[in-house]
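Model: Ready when you are.
Researcher: Fold this.
Model:
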Amino acid sequence: MNVHRLTVSATHAFPGLASSLQQLEGAKVLLGDMAMESLTCIFPPQFAPQVAETIAHYLLTDWLRTEIAREWIRRAGDFDSEMALCADRVVVKFVAGKMSLANASFATWLSRVQVELLPFCTGDAIVSLDGFARFRLREVVAALRAETERVWQHDGRERDFERLVEGLREVLSEQVIQDEELHVFTTPDFVWIADADGFGLCEGEIGEAMDAVVSDVDGIDNEDLAIATLIGHSPRRVVLHDLDPGALWPSFAETLSRLFQQRLQRCDGCDVCRQLAHMEQRFRIQWTQNHRRQQR
């Protein structure tokens, strides 16, 4: 009987590779020296494309994950579970077709790698998958490394932000909830707080709220002042009128949303919001015109 024999070795996620090949109908897997992490796959010629695809899928999933973890250990000196989880999330999105790596989708890379592996599956061959992948998938590895680090850094900022909000929640929980409704208007240039009747809070109320929440007022901006005021008042209901939806993360609106949670309601576009948006636009046009005149 005419059969092909492919012997492969891999130091990354070897059990997963062996398991995947063992599940192929018509293929027989002989495990070699486990210390060397090698195996031999014996299969009829018509199964060569399936064997190549199975190995390609392994390289673009399990091998990639392990390669990123190995690189991180070499650079940082120890294993970082959070970095590994970030790599897993990126690979899952990649496989699901929700993102590309090195300007190509998972399906495209799978087809490319399968084609490059196919010549090794058409006779008797010995292949080091680590060497093959580090050369053929170097662009994918670089793209995965960059995206994993980006996600890891973003998650770090997210954790820092959540710790900040958690501290604010603790202060808020110490305040007695007042049976009042406050409206918060936020634009790129200012934050304004008003009661349910539309009257802005007076300086005395803001000062009292600040004294109750903040011990050191040096260096605070208008957003800090607004948050301290809202915590000091501890209203039962906060209505957020967000006229700055494009603000950089973490925005003032996002901070308020996480701080007051179910007590916060977002305005879906009231008359006041439309008027403020129009005033903001007119102010910016007028400022630009004045600035240009001054530059002449």
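Researcher: Now this one.
Model:
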Amino acid sequence: MATLRCSCYAALPRAWGGAGRAVRAPLLAAWLAGLLAVPGAASAVPLALDQQQVMAGAAVLYNGRIADLRTAQLLDNDAAFHARVQRIVQPLLLQAARDYPESAAWQWEVHTTTDPEEHAYAFAGGKVLVSSAHADALNLSDGELAMVLAHEIAHAVLRHNLLEYEEAIRLEPAWAEQPFAALEHAVDHDGPLMAKLAPLGRQQELEADRAGLQLAARAGWEPHVLAGYFRKLVQASSAPNASGFAHPSPASRWRAARAAAAQLHR
């Protein structure tokens, strides 16, 4: 979902393995209030949602989170981990540009943090944040970290947030009469709407798992090594067969990743 769960993007991040939304509520509230204060914003009708609109909102949220981490001296503060992520992600971005030409024009940013409250997420338009705490907790190999990064890249290039906003309007057409900022806020804070969108969120997680694994394999990573990330999710979970609010169960993701890896070996 365009959210702070693992999910994901456009305006809000998909925090890869996490259970809570990555962007802080005060930041969202302040941003929403600011947009609604713009003359004419209250009457704006997002009848023609597009990727550029979604990316513009995403940039505001991402820049705010990056500024917060920088102020707290938690941005790119583990030099070794940051260098490791940059080394792994660059070939993935080159592959994404080949597979999804639109993304070649994006101004990708990939930052890291040691903040234990973060896992990994991406914003629409190629804005990524990864926490060393998540990698350390699971003792991720380079290949498994590549899977995390490729999953987040996949959320972005598959335009998952845009699709989520469109689904929200399909489910509740009244949102088409509201400003875009209100819709962005609702998909992460309106409980009934979030419940309706949860099945789409679970579907998008599986799509990002599959597309990310395929992308990373085309970039040169061994498929079974990539799939090993999901085995570690299962091992670290106290309820591996239980689905999250908008996430499939770790066990189901592990099964799907194994099957996808086996297909790539045929």
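Researcher: Key takeaway?
Model: The radius of gyration is 18 Å.
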